[in-house]
Structures are given as C-alpha cells and as structure tokens.
C-alpha cells in the first residue's frame, strides 16, 4: 500500500470516527450515566413535591442513577417550569408539572415563557390528586352548607391561602369562589406546604388543596375538611363527604401531576423515562405510598406520552373557560 493510500485510509477512518463519536455518546443504552434532576416547581413538603419524591425514588432504582429533586419556587410554579423548558434536552433535567403549571397557567399568564404543549415532551401522568375544601380548625361552619353560607356573607373579611397564581390551590379555589360568586382576600405563598402551615396556624381562613397534602392534618384535627370534589369518597379520608353529598355538586375538580422533559429530548430517552415511570406505578410499595395519601393512580390508557399530551390539551381548554368566566382580576 502506498503512503498516499495509507494517509487517505487513515483520514477516512478519522472522519468516520468523528461522525460516529457523538452518536455513540448519545446512544440510549448509555443513558443515564449520571444523576438526573427533577425540578419541582414548588416548595418542599407540598403535594407535588411529595409525589415527585415517591415516584422519583423508584425511578432511580430502575434507571440506575439517582433522581435529585430540585425545588424551584415562584410565580405559581411557572418559574420552575420555565427553568425546565430552558434546560438542555439531554434527559438529565425533567420536571414534575401539574394542572397549574401545564394548563391553567396559560390563560392566567398572558406572557408565559413557555407553551405546555410545544415546549415539553410528555413522559407520563404520575398521579391524580383529588381536591378538598378546607378551613382552619376553628372555622365556625360545621358543614359545607354552613361554610358556603358563611363565605358568602363574610367574603370581604376572609383570607384564602394559595400557592401562587396558576397553582392548583389557586385555580381550584378560583373555581369555588366563582361558583359562590365571592372574592375573598387571596394570600399567596411559595408553595402549598407554606400555605398549609398558615392554615394550620389559623393565619388564613380557608383554602382548596390536594388530598396528598392534607390527610394527616385532617385526621389529626388540625384543619377542617368540608368536602372532597370527586364523584366518590376517598378511602384515605372516608368520613369526608363528596361535594355532591354535601350540597355543592357543581364543584367537581381534580388535579394531577405528570412528568415532562424539555422539547427535543431524544425519543429513546423519553421512552426510557416513561418505562421507568410505569414501573414505579406498578410497584406495590410505591402504589401503597401514593394510595395511602389519597392519590388516584393512572391505569390503562391514562398512562403514557400520548395520554398526557391529550390531557394537557383538554385541560388548557377547560381552565381557559373557567378563568374567563371568573372575570377580570380573578
């Protein structure tokens, strides 16, 4: 072989390695090779944080790398969701979004920095979370009927806690207040955890919250639960009536938590994350931890990427109508 031929061959081989190198580094079977960050757009201790840590714990075992929860608070969860949208789409940053960040935020924030459908890859629904109407332990009303009457008569002097405009606690109480035609003073907190602490401490009068955040407080008597906004009672709090049973059937609402990756994350990586999430939801211990908190676990055709994409679309439409009906200033 001539010297020229050898040089040409070596150059050709080098070019092939240069082309093949990055592809090998990004191959799905090499993922993940380091810890994954799961952004939770709210403070530690809130319902989204709790679901993320339970699900993330099992996903870590399946993926062989730790999922590290990073709490990024602010603007009803949209600060954390924005950070996730802007993260590298390499599978090492994901976000535990929810009904607020990936649906209700769209009509609430005209200048929202992201589009829930266009800027994220849906991984899968993690849990549904029923909503309860709650009040401080010494609130004078004994049942939901008395509660709604008292709120209507005293809305101007009452404080309603929430985790920021666009959060689940904000939007679900917005719906409640719209039904009752009242506008109490809305007090924002950096997450549902701090908001719940304020309710337990009696610093605010009432709030609407996800069941995963309130079971122990209701059972312990540190807050009152007037009703759960679902068709059936929840096994975690069997003594709490449904809103239909308690006389407010028009208030029917449930929140949800779901995993998303930044847009452009390679499909094989998204598929691997989806499989890990499904395995977590099939695990007996993980299921028990979520069910004991009152979560509604997705089954069958409610799981997976397509189901989540459809859910986001329908929820954006739903909450756009609710918020439009609530009127200026919400």
TrEMBL record:
The keyword Signal applies. Keywords: Signal. It comes from the Bacteria. Residues 1-25 form the signal peptide. The keyword Signal applies. Pfam families: TctC (PF03401). Belongs to the UPF0065 (bug) family. This is Tripartite tricarboxylate transporter substrate binding protein BugD.
């Amino acid at each position: 072989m001539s010297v020229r031929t050898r040089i040409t061959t070596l150059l050709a081989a080098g070019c092939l390695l240069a082309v093949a190198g990055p592809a090998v580094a990004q191959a799905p079977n090499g993922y993940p090779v380091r810890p994954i960050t799961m952004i939770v757009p709210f403070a530690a201790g809130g319902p989204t944080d709790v679901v993320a840590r339970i699900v993330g714990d099992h996903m870590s075992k399946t993926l062989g790398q730790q999922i590290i929860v990073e709490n990024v608070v602010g603007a009803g969860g949209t600060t954390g969701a924005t950070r996730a949208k802007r993260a590298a789409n390499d599978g090492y940053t994901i976000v535990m979004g929810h009904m607020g960040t990936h649906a209700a935020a769209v009509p609430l924030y005209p200048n929202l920095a992201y589009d829930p459908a266009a800027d994220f890859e849906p991984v899968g629904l993690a849990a549904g979370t029923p909503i309860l109407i709650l009040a401080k332990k010494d609130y004078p009303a004994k049942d939901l009927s008395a509660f709604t009457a008292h709120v209507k008569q005293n809305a101007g002097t009452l404080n309603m806690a929430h985790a920021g405009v666009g959060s689940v606690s904000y939007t679900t109480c917005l719906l409640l207040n719209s039904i009752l035609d009242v506008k109490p003073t809305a007090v924002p907190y950096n997450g549902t955890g701090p908001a719940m602490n304020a309710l337990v401490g009696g610093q605010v009068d009432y709030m609407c919250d996800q069941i995963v955040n309130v079971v122990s407080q209701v059972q312990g008597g540190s807050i009152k639960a007037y009703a759960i906004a679902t068709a059936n009672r929840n096994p975690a709090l069997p003594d709490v009536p449904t809103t239909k049973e308690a006389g407010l059937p028009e208030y029917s609402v449930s929140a949800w938590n779901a995993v998303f990756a930044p847009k452009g994350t390679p499909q094989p990586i998204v598929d691997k994350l989806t499989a890990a999430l499904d395995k977590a939801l099939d695990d007996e211990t993980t299921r028990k931890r979520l069910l004991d908190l009152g979560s509604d676990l997705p089954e069958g055709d409610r799981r997976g990427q397509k189901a989540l994409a459809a859910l986001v679309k329908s929820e954006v439409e739903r909450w756009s109508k609710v918020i439009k009906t609530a009127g200026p200033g919400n």
